[in-house]
């Protein structure tokens, strides 16, 4: 059983972090819509190692850039996106190295046929997001999907290099996840509960014991009378080093000085905005006026439901030309005016064939010519005439259309007003159903047909000007001056506390505490994201008071109160956990000496100052009793040699010292049921436990615990 238990504790399912959605954003959406994004390197030195295998800084930085961009696209604030990307990329790298090492030992590989199953099989669970991107109006076709992927990978177009790299990275992640599943299955299937073991366990658990006892709690001895010195704690740590491993970290205390805009600052901004209201109301050249206000105005209607504005319902109720505001929009004061409004269809279904004159460069966003205008128009006109003579639209679309986003669907789009470029949009929403014509846009010539128009909505031309509510120089300087003065007066951590009590606490400021700040953290507990503050904390020395650092709307003055090096905890750091254990051990020795040699329960009770003799029944091997968790009492109770006797040695328990007499041990009927069913239940429970990332048996936790991992990300990021 020890070997089986060892396997269960050390190995289980390894979940390789797969940021599939993020990678897909680069791989397919950008490729088939003509958009792209490139990462940038941050150097090529080692950022650390896992069991001696270096992690290349340049390659790591590319992964961070990819993830960071995608987190931002998902709406993460910049600082949070950077932090999340840095940690996710690191976890991926460490997990992959550890898993690869195990797989190499086992000889596990993914063959070409199996990779095809992962990528293209409709029944595969791994690449569902990939298949979703490759599904069109006709459904999902594995052959067509493979052709499109091969088209991307074989392309010699240098602008697609980033997308090709991202696809290859994505495929590697899928392969790692499949290998992980195989690895986990191998380990999980090795879990076994022998019949003899369960039969013995059931027999043990059916026993019930009854004891008489005398006890004395550790709480009867005042803690302050039992001293534990650092040497004793250090000796305990040296014998239990695995329990006292620690990462590098630091603790700080801090005081914040608010530099957020005051009510006076807000009033100034509001008045500045109001000064523009008259011209906003009367200007004859709206676009020029708005440009002077830092606003790029697009003279186009947009459906009301697509306009994002916190007070749009109130704005839309006003007649065209009437100004609404000032009102709060985010961190700004704003004025808004409906320039015009009209009734439009809710959605329109169109189909088109695009003959391109220009394509957008995925790197620069610029439109690059691909065909002259005359040739493009003539080809579009030929398509129009062919369709008029009865040619099949779908066939011509597949053959000629250069819009990869729609040609697989017969050129169809369901669009809402304002979704497409203006010329495309105007034709779709201004012409009746059945209209057909050639429409010129920046992308080329579109042969368009309107298939259907549905619903009703109101579209608006809306102009808005904003002024951000920012702190005045006086507000910022006042906060900074106070922070500088406090930092200057507080020469060290002790002075920090003294000056705070004397000068800052009377002003209502609060002293904060942030603990376990790691070198690569970007967020400080209670303060928010500030990578620079963390860098400063790690540049300082123990007890040092740092210069003020701007974090969000505050200036922060921090003092370093603790420095923990990677390795084994110091006696001071471990004291809160170790001291109670050692103190109870000393208390147990005092109580055992007080009891002396055990002869009878009554004698022990007298030695302890007249303690009562208590009776405890219903003690079982597999559960706690009214005593709580006291394994030594259970062990002594069910020791066959103790039945009917007084245990002659006082028992050192979790909560106190006990002297017991075992009155009786009997058996009750076994109610655990069928052994086969028990084995099945235990197997399922173990499988779930193995899959719990918080459990010691979670494979990556076991592998990381046994690995030597050096993390130097803080040197560069």
Show unreliable segments.
1-44
- Describe the global form: extended
Total helices: the number is 25
Largest beta-sheet details: 4 strands, antiparallel
Q: How many strands appear in the DSSP assignment?
A: 25
The span between the termini is 47 Å
Radius of gyration: 36 Å
Beta-strand share of residues: 15-25%
Mean pLDDT: 85
Helix content: 40-55%
In spatial order, strands of the major sheet run 22-3-24-23
Q: What structural category characterises the helix and strand content?
A: alpha+beta
Describe the structure.
- This protein has 717 residues and is of the alpha+beta class.
- The strands form eight sheets. A four-stranded antiparallel beta sheet has the order 22-3-24-23. Strands 16-5-20-19 form a four-stranded antiparallel beta sheet.
- A hairpin with a 2-residue loop joins strand 1 (46-50) and strand 2 (53-56).
- The longest helix is centred in the N-terminal third of the chain and has 29 residues, at 78-106.
- The radius of gyration is 36 Å and the shape is extended.
- It starts with a helix and ends in a 6-residue tail after the last strand.
């Amino acid at each position: 059983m020890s070997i089986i238990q060892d396997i269960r504790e050390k190995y289980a399912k390894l979940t390789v972090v797969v940021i599939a959605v993020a990678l897909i954003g680069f791989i397919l959406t950008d490729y088939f819509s003509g958009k792209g994004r490139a990462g940038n390197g941050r150097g090529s030195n080692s950022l650390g190692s896992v069991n001696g295998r270096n992690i290349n800084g340049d390659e790591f930085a590319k992964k961070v850039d990819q993830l960071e961009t995608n987190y931002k696209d998902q709406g993460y604030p910049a600082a949070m996106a950077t932090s999340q990307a840095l940690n996710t990329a690191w976890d991926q790298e460490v997990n992959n190295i550890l898993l690869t090492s195990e797989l190499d030992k086992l000889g596990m590989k993914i063959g070409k046929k199996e990779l095809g199953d992962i990528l293209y099989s409709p029944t595969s669970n791994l690449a569902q997001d990939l298949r979703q991107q490759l599904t069109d109006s006709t459904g999902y076709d594995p052959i067509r999907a493979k052709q499109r992927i091969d088209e991307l990978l074989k392309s010699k177009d240098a602008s697609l290099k980033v997308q090709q790299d991202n696809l290859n990275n994505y495929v590697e992640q899928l392969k790692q996840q499949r290998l992980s599943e195989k690895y986990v299955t191998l380990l999980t299937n090795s879990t076994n509960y022998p019949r003899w073991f369960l039969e013995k366990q059931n027999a043990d658990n059916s026993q019930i014991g009854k004891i008489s006892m005398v006890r004395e709690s550790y709480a009867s001895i005042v803690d302050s009378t039992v001293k534990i010195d650092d040497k004793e704690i250090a000796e305990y740590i040296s014998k239990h080093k695995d329990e006292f491993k620690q990462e590098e970290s630091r603790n700080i205390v801090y005081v914040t000085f608010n530099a957020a805009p005051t009510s006076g600052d807000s009033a100034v901004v509001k008045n500045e905005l109001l000064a523009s209201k008259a011209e906003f109301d009367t200007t004859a050249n709206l676009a020029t006026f708005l440009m002077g206000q830092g606003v790029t105005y697009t003279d186009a209607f947009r459906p009301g439901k697509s306009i994002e504005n916190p007070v749009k319902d109130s704005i839309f109720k006003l007649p065209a030309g009437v100004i609404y505001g000032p009102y709060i929009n985010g961190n700004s004061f704003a004025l808004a005016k409906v320039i015009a409004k009209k009734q439009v269809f809710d959605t329109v279904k169109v189909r088109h064939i695009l003959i391109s004159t220009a394509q957008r460069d995925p790197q620069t966003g610029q439109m690059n010519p691909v065909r002259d205008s005359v040739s493009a128009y003539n080809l579009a006109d030929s398509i129009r005439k062919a369709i008029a003579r009865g040619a099949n639209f779908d066939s011509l679309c597949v053959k000629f259309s250069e819009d990869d986003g729609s040609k697989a669907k017969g050129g169809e789009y369901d669009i809402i007003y304002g979704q497409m470029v203006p010329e495309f949009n105007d034709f779709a929403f201004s012409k009746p159903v059945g209209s057909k014509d050639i429409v010129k846009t920046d992308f080329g010539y579109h042969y368009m047909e309107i298939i259907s128009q549905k619903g009703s909505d109101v579209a608006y031309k809306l102009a808005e000007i904003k002024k951000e509510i920012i702190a005045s120089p006086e507000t910022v300087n006042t906060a900074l001056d106070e922070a500088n003065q406090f930092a200057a007066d507080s020469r060290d951590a002790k002075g920090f506390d003294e000056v705070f009590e004397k000068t800052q606490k009377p002003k209502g400021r609060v002293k904060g505490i942030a603990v376990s700040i790691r070198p690569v953290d970007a967020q400080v507990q209670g303060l928010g994201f500030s990578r620079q503050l963390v860098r400063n904390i790690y540049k300082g020395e123990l007890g040092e008071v740092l210069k003020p650092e701007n974090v969000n709307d505050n200036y922060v003055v921090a003092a370093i109160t603790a420095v923990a090096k990677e390795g084994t905890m110091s006696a001071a750091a471990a004291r809160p956990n170790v001291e109670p254990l050692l103190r109870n051990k000393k208390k147990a020795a005092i109580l055992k000496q007080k009891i002396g040699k055990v002869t009878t329960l009554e004698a022990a009770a007298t030695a302890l100052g007249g303690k009562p003799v208590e009776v405890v029944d219903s003690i079982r091997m597999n559960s706690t009793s009214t005593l709580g968790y006291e394994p030594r009492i259970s062990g002594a109770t069910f020791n066959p040699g103790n039945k009917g006797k007084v245990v002659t040695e006082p028992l050192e328990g979790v909560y106190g010292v006990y002297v017991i007499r075992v009155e009786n041990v009997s058996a009750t009927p076994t109610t655990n049921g069928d052994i086969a069913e028990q084995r099945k239940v235990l197997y399922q429970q173990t499988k779930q436990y193995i899959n719990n990332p918080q459990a010691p048996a979670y494979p990556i936790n076991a592998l990381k615990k046994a690995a030597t991992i050096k993390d130097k990300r803080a040197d560069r990021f």
